[in-house]
Amino acid sequence: MLFGPALAEIGAAVYAAYIIDSKERVMNWEADSIRNIATGMLAELDRELGTTRRFLERTPGDKLGWRPHEKSKTAGQLAFHIATLLKGVLTLALSDESELPNFREEHQPADVQEILSAFNESEQFVLKNLAQIDDARMHQTLKITRDGSVLMELPRVAFLRMVLLNHLYHHRGQYGVYLRLMGAKVPSSYGPSGDESPLG
Questions:
Q1: What are the CA-CA distances from residue 124 to residues 68, 87, 90, 94, 129 (Å)?
Q2: 28-73 pLDDT, tens per residue?
Q3: Distance (Å, rounded) from C-alpha 24 to C-alpha 142?
Q4: What is the rounded CA–CA span in Å between residue 23 and residue 45?
Q5: Prediction pTM value
Q6: What is the pLDDT of residues 81-98, one digit of tens each?
Q7: Topology classification of domain 4-181
Q8: Alpha helices by DSSP H, 60-134
Q9: Domain ranges of the chain
C-alpha cells in the first residue's frame, strides 16, 4: 500500500483527523480563491511560509559552503535564493514589463541569521504588496525581458502561480535533500518526513 509506512507511524485515527483538517483547509482556500485571486494566494502562503521557515532554520551554520556536486549551488546559496525568491519574483510582477535579473551571480550568506533576515523581509514584502493586485490586473499580460528580448509573455496570475509559488515549493523540496545529506533533521511538510510528523 502506497502510504502504508506513514499510516502505520501516525495511526489510522490520527490520520483520519489529519485528512479532515486538510479538507477544511482546502475548502477555506477554495472559498478565498473565489472571492479574490490574491487573497487565495495569500491563504496558501499563510500555510507554506511557516513550513519554508522551518526548512531554512534547520540549516547547519557550519555547512553553508557545502554542495552535493560541483555544479550545484552551495547550501547557503540555495537557502538564500529561497529566502529572497518571493520578494524578487513579486517585484517583477508589480510592473507590466520587467527585465530579468542576472541569476548567475549567486550570493553566499555569511551566516544563517542573514538567510532568516532576508526571508523575513521577503515575507513582509509579499504580505503587503500581493494583496494590492486586483483580479483585473491579475489577468493582464506581464512581459519579462532580457537584453531587449521577450522571454515570457503571460497573464500575471499564471506568472505568480508558476514563478512565485511553484518555484518556491520546488526549491524547498530540493533543499530538503540538502538538509538530509548535511545530516540535519528534515521538517515535515505535506506529510511526515524521516524525522518528524506534521501532527507532532
A1: 31, 9, 12, 15, 9
A2: 545 454 459 999 999 999 999 999 999 999 999 999 999 999 999 9
A3: 33
A4: 17
A5: 0.81
A6: 999 999 999 999 999 999
A7: Four Helix Bundle (Hemerythrin (Met), subunit A) (1.20.120)
A8: 75-93, 112-129
A9: 4-181
